[in-house]
Design brief:
This protein has 21 helices and 29 strands. The chain is α/β, with parallel strands linked by helices. The protein folds into three domains: 181 residues, 3-Layer(aba) Sandwich (Rossmann fold), CATH 3.40.50.150; 238 residues, Spore Coat Polysaccharide Biosynthesis Protein SpsA, Chain A, CATH 3.90.550; 233 residues, Spore Coat Polysaccharide Biosynthesis Protein SpsA, Chain A (Alpha-Beta Complex), CATH 3.90.550.10. Strands 18, 19, 20, 21, 22, 23, 24, 25, 26 and 29 form a ten-stranded mixed beta sheet that branches. Strands 10-9-8-11-15-13-16-12 form an eight-stranded mixed beta sheet, with helices on both faces.
């Protein structure tokens, strides 16, 4: 052996030999996460940078940061050790090498060891400095202190770790966290003496369009006794899909990504109503590895035996493929508390908005780690999913490499093949190893999905044909009383006059032009109306259609309350207050607040609308404004091309001529929907004023 590999104590002034030793140890272990408590002038910390993927230095002295070598790998934390450990549950990191070298007092060392131990990975290394002072003069606070007493006490309790002290002053103790000598021979899980009830909780948002829900239901539902889902305002059919597979679906009205913690509290409350023994938390883009069904019950038994509150699973991040996982840039360092033992008072103590908060309840304290069950994460498995994550986090203000760019950067890409036996039966797909992309190539594919990520989810549609006055009025009303953040509004210029077309174009108002053939323009006008609405539906980009008339005025909450009343198997109309020009219909109220734009009494209508609004939904009603799922509208073929001759087949209708006994096209639409299980209902807190015959009377 070359002498260059040896540590020569004569060259280290007696007390600093440990620096070379720790660096050499790091060069062998190659920790993914290295944490040093008390970095002083970074004599050890900076030398470990070449051997670790991520390094965190903690110190109470702000001057310590000036000595740290700045790198994407390094991070300085200005805090005492007890303040920083409180952040670790939010970090979701497992420490592979921990150097405790802050306060050398016995109690401080013991507290640091015990507080950080749960966040050290299985078979991770913990180093304790100053635990073998060479003579009594070194047992002073400014030198070794009483750290040696902490090492002595810790050496008496080694069920979960092993420990040795190098007896050269000032001393270094090396601790390995373990339950067995060989990392691959950790003790088998206990055989459960009873069957434990497990409820899985999950938050979803438009997961069906990302290809996640079918996999999630197929592979997770058989493992648990019930699924409890919080739908965060999905419009792509995810909500309806989950209703087919579980009765426990909580429906959020508007996507609220930053309120994840309050959503989890609602999920927890709903799950606890089912009296489970354990709660399993997964996202919709995740499944558990093979044989999880057997292991989950054993892990529950382990929790009871050890009186642990939760079990931490390793997350396997599939990267732009179905069988390759990413292991650089912390992608293999994720360990999350997935299985929670139900205990009295289980809760999230704070549910304030914010990203990257602690994902499990505050009452969970004592943890167990397992490699018996892993989480296969598909959230990074395609360009589409990566682009959705990147753009979503970017829209919420995330910046920088760690908080944003890491989601798509492949400049440090390291991939490993995932063993096929980790996958549940039928899920494994053997595919080619992804070729690393340049930063420019990654940004390019993100841009390809931008329109998909930010597309409108609701399309508000209005026909117009001759009146600029009504056009301006209804457009202003919609924008005034509707949150347009996830919506599009457009007119359909239906056989419109040149004046109307010119106004729409000159003012850049969203619109499509629809012109009936000359021979059809002589038909009953209502035929052209229904054709135009069907055309509008074909052009709409939203998952939901909202049809309105040009002679309508709106009140606060008109749209939100339509959406609130949607239940997956209905279409919803507003309750109309009508001017009295014509008789009103079911649930309609005749009250004159103006019969044209110039005479509209807006304040009086709004006061009246507030007085009659009630949170109630009833079957039937009038026909517009109408909120309907686009898939449902297309499933029944939309509107007939006119009113239908009385007695004819609604699926092969004879279109009535003016004066013939008939059924309105609106009624025919509702009948066809009913045959498919979609019920027409009215929301009594969505109040809209209808002038009646507005544009026709202009």
């Amino acid at each position: 052996m070359s002498n260059s590999h040896l540590i020569d104590l004569s060259h280290h002034r007696g007390l600093l030999w440990h620096e070379d030793f720790i660096v050499h140890l790091a060069s062998i272990i190659r920790p993914r996460i290295y944490v040093e408590l008390g970095i002083a002038k970074c004599a050890v910390f900076n030398r470990i940078i070449p051997y670790a993927e991520k390094l965190i230095g903690v110190d109470v002295d702000p001057q310590a940061e000036t000595f740290m070598q700045k790198s994407e790998k390094t991070r300085f934390v200005l805090a005492n050790t007890q303040e920083f450990v409180k952040q670790l549950p939010h970090e979701s990191l497992m420490i592979d090498m921990l150097f405790i070298d802050a306060d050398h007092d016995r109690e401080a060392v013991l507290k640091d060891f015990r507080n950080y131990f749960p966040f050290v990975s299985p078979h991770g290394i913990i180093l304790l400095h100053d635990v073998h002072p060479g003579h009594e003069s070194l047992i002073r606070p400014e030198w070794c202190g009483t750290a040696y007493l902490a090492a002595e006490e810790l050496s008496h309790h080694t069920d979960e770790y092993e420990m040795v002290t190098i007896p050269v002053s000032p001393g270094l103790a090396i601790c390995r966290k373990r339950r067995s000598q060989l990392s691959w021979k950790e003790p088998r899980l206990p055989v459960p003496r009873k069957r434990y009830s497990i409820v899985c909780i999950c938050q979803i948002y438009n997961e069906l369009s990302k290809g996640n829900l079918e996999r999630f239901v197929r592979y997770v539902k058989p493992l648990v006794d019930a699924l409890v889902v919080y739908d965060d305002g999905s419009t792509d059919g995810s909500y309806e899909y989950m209703l087919q597979h579980t009765p426990y679906v909580i429906r959020g009205l508007k996507n609220d990504f930053a309120n994840e913690r309050s959503h989890k509290q609602r999920l927890l409350e709903e799950a606890l109503k089912l009296s489970p023994d354990f709660i399993l938390w997964l996202d919709a883009d995740e499944v558990l590895t093979a044989n999880a069904g057997n292991h989950l019950q054993s892990l529950c038994a382990l929790c009871e035996e050890e009186q642990a509150d939760g079990v931490v699973f390793h997350e396997i991040n599939l990267w732009r493929s179905q069988s390759w996982r990413r292991v650089d840039s912390l992608y293999d360092a994720g360990w999350f508390v997935r299985l929670w033992r139900v205990t009295p008072g289980m809760r999230y103590e704070e549910t304030n908005p914010g990203l990257h908060q602690r994902p499990y309840p505050d009452t969970i304290k004592r943890l167990q780690w397992t490699d018996a069950v892993k989480v296969l994460h598909y959230g990074f498995s395609s360009k589409q999913r990566l682009a959705h994550k990147y753009l979503t986090y970017q829209a919420h203000g995330q910046r920088g490499y760690e908080m944003l760019d890491r989601l798509i950067s492949e400049e440090q890409l390291v991939l490993e093949k995932v063993p096929s036996f980790w996958f549940p039966p039928g899920l494994y797909q053997d595919d080619e190893k992804p070729i690393p992309l340049t930063w420019e190539e990654s940004l390019a594919y993100v841009e390809e999905y931008r329109s998909e990520v930010f597309r409108p989810h609701f399309s508000i549609i209005c026909l117009i044909y001759k009146s600029i006055e009504w056009l301006k009025f209804v457009y202003e009303q919609v924008l005034k009383y509707t949150d347009m953040s996830d919506k599009e509004f457009f007119f359909v210029a239906n056989d419109a006059t040149e004046e109307v077309l010119a106004y729409l174009r000159e003012h850049n108002i969203p619109h499509y032009e629809f012109n009936n053939p000359v021979e059809l323009q002589a038909e009953w006008y209502v035929n052209r109306v229904y054709r135009a609405y069907n055309y509008a539906a074909s052009r709409a980009r939203g998952d939901f259609l909202v049809f309105i008339n040009s002679d309508m005025a709106f009140s606060p909450g008109w749209f939100d309350n339509l959406w609130k009343a949607y239940n997956g198997s209905n279409c919803i109309t507003s309750r109309l207050v009508e001017s009295g020009k014509l008789p009103s219909g079911q649930y309609g109220i005749s009250r004159n607040f103006g019969r044209d734009v110039s005479s509209y009494q807006e304040e009086q209508f709004l006061q009246f609308a507030a007085s009659i609004s009630e949170s109630r939904v009833e079957n039937g009603g009038l026909f517009m404004p109408l909120l309907i799922r686009k898939d449902h509208f297309e499933m029944v073929g939309g509107y007939p091309e006119g009113s239908v001759l009385l007695g004819s087949d609604i699926y092969e209708p004879v279109i009535a001529k003016w004066g013939e006994p008939c059924i309105s096209g609106d009624t025919v639409l509702m009948r066809k929907l009913k045959h498919k299980g979609i019920i027409h209902q009215t929301a009594f807190d969505s109040i809209v004023y209808h002038f009646q015959w507005g544009e026709k009377d202009s």
